[in-house]
Amino acid sequence: MLLDFAESIGVTYDCLDDWQRVHPKFFHAVKNVMRFQEMQLAREGLAGHWNPAMSIFLLKNNHGYRDRHDIESHGELSISYPPDWQPVDTAVGVRMGQDGKALPAAPDAAGRDRLGG
């Protein structure tokens, strides 16, 4: 909506952002338009007057809506590692020894180390 408005008055979307920072009345006007859009998308999408999938898409992307994922856990989590397992510093892809020093790279099936050598 705002992009269409910007184009209709011959300015860029970034210009509208700048105006919102500089002019409080404009900021509040845009905020009211966004609230109205949110309300219309929810109302018309739920009523089936508008494409519900498109309404959901716009609400998620423009109004902070998201799918809710409830995850419950009622037990303990235990992780066991093989005896020869060594932690990996994922930031650089290096296996670390218990002393905190890097271990030599393990060769892959083709005999190359994991870092491409």
What attributes does this structure have?
117 residues, mainly alpha, two-stranded antiparallel sheet, 45% helix
Topology record:
Blueprint (H helix, E strand, L loop, with lengths): L1 H7 L4 H10 L1 H24 L4 H12 L24 E2 L4 E2 L22
Antiparallel strand pairs: 1-2
Helix pairs in contact: 2-3, 3-4
Textual characterization of the structure:
There is one protein chain. With 117 residues, the protein is mostly helical. The protein has a domain of 62 residues. The protein has a two-stranded antiparallel sheet. Strand 1 and strand 2 form a beta hairpin. The longest helix has 24 residues. The model has no long low-confidence stretch (mean pLDDT 82).
